[in-house]
Each structure stands twice: as C-alpha cells, then as structure tokens.
Design goal:
The protein has about 120 residues and is an alpha+beta fold. It is built from four helices and four strands; from the N terminus they run βαβαααββ. The chain has a single domain, classed as GTP Cyclohydrolase I, domain 2 (2-Layer Sandwich), CATH 3.30.1130.
C-alpha cells in the first residue's frame, strides 16, 4: 500500500500559453500534488526527518512555476514532476495544473499526469 501526501490548490502566477497575449502577463495556475512515499516511520517516530517535508516541496515548486515560461500546461506539469522526483524522496507523483478561465464557459482547463522516478531515469 502506498502512503500519500497531498498539496491542494496551490495558486501561483506564471507565463503560460501559446497565444501572444498569454506570453505578456502572468496568469493564475492551480497546482495539485499527490506525493507517493512511505510515511510509516514518521507516523511512529513523529520526527520530520522520517518523512517528506511538504513545506520544502511546496517552496521548491513555487520557485519552478514562478520562474517558468512554458507554452503548454503539459510541459509545466512534467517540470514539476521531474523536480519532485529528482530532489525529494518520492517514488511516484501525480501533478495537476489548471488554468482558471482559459476557456469561455469553463471554470478551468488543465492536465493531470502521473510519473515515477523511472520516467526520468532515476
């Protein structure tokens, strides 16, 4: 059984999109993460060293997203997954990236991906 750590509705701003107007100003994106990792030891020890520090993960993802200039939400989601899997003790991650208001009549448009360490040759 896999344990999970969730980070929900992280609202950030970045340059994203293919249209010229999307390349001029930062837009809102909503990031959701599910980190698959074993937290059994942390549950027993109550010690931060035995788990993934989700504050550190979140701070790193904020840096990645706010400094990025991707055209596609798929590319942004992949960059987020790669960062988490290469920098933190996580075996698998689900990442969703949504652009609120990207389509008329839709609350948001987005993509959800799932990647493992093996997807990045780790």
């Amino acid at each position: 059984m896999d344990d999970r750590i969730h980070v929900r509705d992280l609202l950030l701003r970045t340059i994203i999109g293919v249209n010229p107007e999307e390349r001029r100003e930062r837009q809102d994106v909503i990031i959701n993460l599910t980190l698959y990792t074993n937290v059994r030891q942390a549950g027993l020890s109550d010690d931060m060293k035995d788990t993934v520090n989700y504050r550190s993960v979140t701070k790193r993802i904020i840096e990645v997203v706010e400094s990025s200039r991707f055209y596609l939400v798929e590319a942004l989601a992949t960059a987020i997954a790669r960062t988490i899997l290469t920098e933190f003790p996580v075996e698998r991650v689900q990442v969703s990236v949504e652009k609120p208001g990207a389509l008329r009549f839709a609350r948001s448009v987005g993509v959800e991906i799932e990647r493992t360490r093996e997807d990045f040759g780790l």
